[in-house]
Amino acid sequence: MNKETFLRNFMEEVWNKKNFEEVERYVHEEYKIHLDNADPWEGKILSLPEFKERLKFSFGSFPDIHFEITSAIHDDNQVAITWIMTGTNLGKIGDFPPTNRKIKTNGMTIYHFYNNKIAGHSQVFDRLTIMKQLGFV
Amino acid sequence: MNKETFLRNFMEEVWNKKNFEEVERYVHEEYKIHLDNADPWEGKILSLPEFKERLKFSFGSFPDIHFEITSAIHDDNQVAITWIMTGTNLGKIGDFPPTNRKIKTNGMTIYHFYNNKIAGHSQVFDRLTIMKQLGFV
Questions:
Q1: What global pTM score does this model have?
Q2: Do A75 and B73 touch (CB under 8 A)?
Q3: pLDDT value of position B137
Q4: B74 touches chain A (CB under 8 A)
Q5: Which residues of chain A lie closer than 8 angstroms to B82, CB-CB?
Q6: Domain B3-133 adopts which CATH fold?
Q7: Would residue B101 be called left, alpha or beta, if left means φ above 0 and alpha means ψ between -120 and 50 degrees?
Q8: Do B127 and A124 touch (CB under 8 A)?
């Protein structure tokens, strides 16, 4: 399977369908978050249990979080995607209580592969749009 | 020349060295901005003179604007880069007077090629970081 298809399946099964049992199929046992502004795990290497903790953290704030992939580019070891993230803020974000507001923003991620599994990412998204949509700015 | 090298040279010559005479060498005569949150030209197709106007607009706000490419991935028709943008706000941003503050933020861009020239981009960067650094948030 080419890496772009693999990555698209990962996004659908793990992030969109929130199927924790699929994590091992896609994610390397050492997953590094190279760049992800304001992500509590930025710069860290996550084990599979820590990877699932991070998923729970995101799903806790936005239980219906969804990524639509709008374009992709890949080489032998990396897949870059642009995406539209949507979700409803039904859980706490850090210490902030849920706003029940909907978010929709653009972002891009480069996923890095190692031994045919996803072993890390660099990610940027427009936090200002989200902060405005949640009423924080 | 492969497209990644071509793109790196474009970033250096046009954006970092601000050499307007090099624009024609790199940029297609129809350049589309597919995605670029809050960019006044988002969704538009720019001619070469309009492309230069957009450069002047950016250089006016941040005369020392500089992009350091931190990673890249390419296929036959696209180059994706992650970058660190730095600059000093010495000119107006829209109607806001210069703050004289320095900015530094992460972003990603996918550049699209057509007929061996750069014919457009999709871009995301963390505007919240910049708004904080400028004192607007």
A1: 0.89
A2: yes
A3: 84
A4: yes
A5: 35, 110, 122, 124
A6: Nuclear Transport Factor 2; Chain: A, (3.10.450)
A7: beta
A8: no
Torsion of CA B131, B34, A64, A133, to 10 degrees: 30
Q: Identify the residue whose tokens are 């699209």.
A: B112
What is the Cα–Cα distance from B49 to B46, expressed in whole angstroms? 8
**Residues A7, A111: contact at Cβ < 8 Å?**
yes
Answer whether B107's CB lies under 8 Å from B20's CB: no
- How large is the ipTM? 0.82
Helix (H) or strand (E) run with residue A79 in it: strand A78-88
Output phi, psi for B84, to 5 deg. Answer: -115, 120
In chain A, domain spans: 3-133
* Angstrom distance (rounded) from CA B98 to CA B48: 28
Cross-strand bridge partners of residue B112: B78, B120
Is any Cβ of chain B less than 8 angstroms from the Cβ of A84?
A: no
User: Around B47, how many Cα atoms within 13 Å sit in the side-chain half-sphere?
Assistant: 2
Interface contacts A/B by beta carbons within 8 Å? 80
Q: Which residues of B touch A124 (CB under 8 A)?
A: 82, 106-108, 124-126
Q: In terms of residues, how long is chain B?
A: 137
Which tokens sit at A102?
A: 């909907």
Partner residue facing A71 (CB), from B73, B107, B122: B122
Supply angle C-alpha B109, B114, B119, rounded to 5.
45
User: pLDDT per residue over A15-63, tens digit each?
Assistant: 999 999 999 999 999 999 999 987 899 999 999 999 999 999 999 999 9
**Is residue A82 within 8 Å of residue B110, measured between CB atoms?**
yes
What are the pLDDT digits (tens) for A69-93? 998 999 999 999 999 999 999 999 9
| Cβ-based neighbours of B49, under 8 Å, separated by 6 or more | none
The rounded distance, in Å, linking the Cα atoms of A113 and A32 is: 11
